[in-house]
Amino acid sequence: MLQDLDAILLARIQFAFTVSFHFIFPAFSIGLASYLAVLEALWLKTGKQRYLDLFKYWIKIFAVAFAMGVVSGIVMSYQFGTNWAVFSDKAGPVIGPLMAYEVLTAFFLEAGFLGVMLFGMEKVGRKLHFAATCMVAVGTFISAFWILSVNSWMHTPTGFEMGANGQFLPGESWWDIVFNPSFPFRLAHTLTAAYLTTAFAVGGVGAWHLLKDSTNKHARTMFSMAMWMAAIVAPIQVVVGDLHGLNTLEHQPAKVMAMEGHYQSHPDGAPLILFGIPNSAEQRVDYAVEIPKASSLILKHDPNAPLAGLDTIAEEDRPPVGIVFWSFRIMVGIGTLMVLLGLWSLLARFRGKLFEWRWLHRAALVMAPSGFVAVLAGWITTEVGRQPWTVYGLLRTVDSASPLAAPAVATSLVAFVIVYFAVFGAGAWYILKLMSKSPHRGERGVKTGEPGPIRTAGITPGPTQNPGDPDALPRNREEAE
After folding, report:
1. Helices marked H in 252-357
2. Strand, coil or helix: what is 279?
3. Which H helix or E strand runs over 276?
4. Within 13 Å, how many C-alpha atoms sit on residue 36's CB side?
């Protein structure tokens, strides 16, 4: 029995390790694909060379991040068959088609247009190339849609029937499965997190180059765009996160109890525990710093509303409180800092000091990786908080694993750790190397010539551009090259 438990623990660690590596790349590429579409749209509309330079600068980074996301995702999916065969057998009739839809729609869309996006501007023309860029951005959204639908169904399973052999079978309507109760909230929460992740990464790169040269126009543009995104989206994320939390309280109360550190029920209003050390052995939070009745106010919108605690949940059905408690606070803490940095940037912008306040740039540089940390902390909160279930309330994790011995799982885990740190470590290093180089006029990347007669006859300025503008579109083939 001990060996089986060890094997299950190792399988969980392996899946958590591979998902953690995988998750950070889609979180970056979803937002970066949309950012590239915005840059190309601005270039086509205004004719400013600066937007094209930034597009070429970031598309190289996007290509590397997208490739690493695809590779890590393929490896991760194999574990459903190797380490979690029982789960695949029981839940496969429901989640299998949804994951197939992700491949048939999102992955094929991304793969079909990615080559055009990376290499086809000279061959297909600007407008069609822009359409390809938009299709890649749409593909990243569709991919998130299906994957989050699968994950949300595991948290709030609906629309299924139980087969005679214990399998989850689709019911009368697939819509009840796809649009399960937690799915809209998870989709909105994850997408806004992806956009914020990209915004703070872009803002950090812009801040890095502004600290070296505050007159760098390309750095100014990317920093300004990133700070607009932070100022607008970070407060929206707070609202979305609150709605997600209320939905979780309704469908997964034990998770919220662990997040809040509520070991005991509070019939007259629960406190908001800001910090402390969860002590599951004594069923309390040691050294707690709390605000009286604030948790009831947030979760029930009534400071005197009663809130149940983990004492109402059977011990074998409780999630690991310590991990969930702290991962939730890391996520919320980073989100708070994001909101504050966005407000700080607004103050600097309105005072005309956005590109002069060095401490703002230093803060943005420090916050550059914050989005990646926040999405990992949020994922840990969500998935560890679901334990001990794979399909919440219906299929336990201990009953979902393949019948493997601990040494077999440990061997593959060690192999994954070595290969992942080598391969993805090199990829991350290369991305940082690309980011360390300042974008400049005439940035190398995709070619921008038009096909057909326009290429041979030369390119003339459009009606929205000023021929004397140094950021205008190239006026002839020589400038285009």
Report:
1. 253-260, 294-300, 321-350
2. strand
3. strand 272-279
4. 30
Q: Are 367 and 204 in contact (CB under 8 A)?
A: yes
Res 90 pLDDT > 50 = yes
- Mean pLDDT for the stretch of residues 179-192: 94
For 12-35, the DSSP string reads HHHHHHHHHHHHHHHHHHHHHHHH
Domain boundaries, the chain: 185-403
Helix H or strand E segment including 272: strand 272-279
What pLDDT digit, counting tens, does each position of 416-466 carry?
Answer: 888 888 888 888 899 999 888 888 776 665 554 444 333 333 333 433 444
Contact 374, 335 (CB under 8 A): yes
SS3 state at 261:
coil
Integer angstrom CA distances of residue 416 from 57, 402, 463: 31, 18, 55
Q: 194 and 348 in contact (C-beta within 8 Å)? A: no
- Report the distance separating Cα 384 and Cα 137, nearest Å: 30
Angle of helix 49-82 relative to helix 2-46, nearest 10 degrees, comes to: 160
Strand partners, 290: 273
Per the CB < 8 A criterion, the answer to whether 274 and 291 are in contact is: yes
Cα-to-chain-centroid distance, residue 240:
14
d(CA 352, CA 39): 23
pLDDT at position 389 is 93
Buried b (16+ CB within 10 A) or exposed e, 51-67: bbbbbbbbbbbbbbbbe
DSSP characters over 132-187: HHHHHHHHHHHHHHHHHHHHHHHHS--SEEE-TTS-EEE-S-HHHHHT-TTHHHHH
Of the candidates 4, 19, 40, the one whose C-alpha atom is nearest the C-alpha of residue 383 is 19
Closest alpha carbon to 220 in 390, 53, 415, 430: 53
DSSP letter at 293 equals T
Q: Name residues whose C-beta falls within 8 Å of residue 1's C-beta, 6 or more positions apart in sequence.
A: none
Instruction: Give the distance from CA 442 to its chain's centroid.
Output: 31
To the nearest whole percent, how much of the chain has pLDDT over 90?
A: 53
Reply yes or no on whether the pLDDT at 123 is more than 60: yes
Taking residue 113's Cβ as centre, other Cβ atoms within 10 Å add up to 21
Q: H helices of 102-125, where? A: 108-119, 121-124
124: CB partners within 8 A, 6+ apart: 116, 132, 451
